[in-house]
Amino acid sequence: MSKNSLSDVKYSVLDLAVITEGQTPADAINNSRDLAKHVEDLGYTRFWMAEHHNMENIASSATSVLLGYVAEATESLRIGSGGVMLPNHSPLVIAEHYGTLATLYPDRIDLGLGRAPGTDQKTAQAIRPDRMQQVQQFPRNVQQLQQYFSSDNSSADVRAIPGEGTQVPLWILGSSTDSAHLAAALGLPYVFASHFSPQQLHAALQVYREKFEPSDQLDEPYVLPCVNIVIADTDKQAEFLSTSLKQMFMGVVTGNRDPMPPPVDDMNTVWNLRTKMAVEQMLKYTFVGSKETVREELSDFTEQTDADEIMTATYIYDHNQRLKSHRLLSEIMNGK
């Protein structure tokens, strides 16, 4: 059933603990915690952090540690991974980490799972030499996680303590129809990475909905696409602020992982046509502007995707402007 309006759609945050120029990792982590406290008061449903490694501009490598730091500072906000790159890890250890979080913060922990490395290939090899074999085992390892979290595992030789019986909800993250098939087959909610890999969004959502099999966790499909959002008082100001986001994605294209730079007046002074085209393709589902502009574009997007929830990544150099952008989004989602 199509959602009638934005007020029917839940809204959440994806955060990477982005390090900006002049900041330390500690600054970025504390800003993430501050953001979580801020959005909890604005009606956001969940606050997720993503696993990345060997990047000077991202401080969320030890994701479960950071999530505990955020959960301790909040009361009702759901806290989770967006996601854990499961082939980097033992399913048992992830069950123990997130089972511990779920024991400390009951009914508040989500576990989003992806299969990408979250880094470059050399670093991925350093994390786990047999990683490629583990990628092939991803569906089996997801099911193993479910088993560790279930009460039924109490008679097994290998158990997750804490974790057993916590039933931490799992989510499948992806950017292709492969992940859509898996989420549908396992009856799990599906998160699509349209904030940086938009190409297969609609095809993947169609596969997921058509192939979905109900499970103990979920009766019917649940779709959560990620988008980038930068909102300010005027379109012009938002466009100015968004140049930090564009420069950060330039780094993805060129391999530059320096801390996120401040905004610039003219992007044509910092990128060439080829880089611009690559970045703009990645940022297809990026909504930048005043409340009025973003409201219209976001309404069209949620109608086209029939999203149950949206997850927003907001990369803004100035922390106070980032807080403001999230406040303005909450006003949009609540019809203000």
From TrEMBL:
Family membership noted in the UniProt record: To bacterial alkanal monooxygenase alpha and beta chains.
Pfam family of the protein (one): Bac_luciferase
An example Gene Ontology CC term for this record: cytosol
Source organism of the structure: Fodinibius salipaludis
Residue ranges of every copy of the Luciferase-like domain listed in the record: 14-303
InterPro entries given in the database record: Bact_Lucif_Oxidored, CmoO-like, Luciferase-like_dom, Luciferase-like_sf
Molecular-function GO term, any one: oxidoreductase activity, acting on paired donors, with incorporation or reduction of molecular oxygen
Phylogenetic lineage: Bacteria, Pseudomonadati, Balneolota, Balneolia, Balneolales
Protein name (database record): Luciferase-like monooxygenase
PANTHER family according to UniProt: LUCIFERASE-LIKE MONOOXYGENASE
NCBIfam families in UniProt: oxido_grp_1
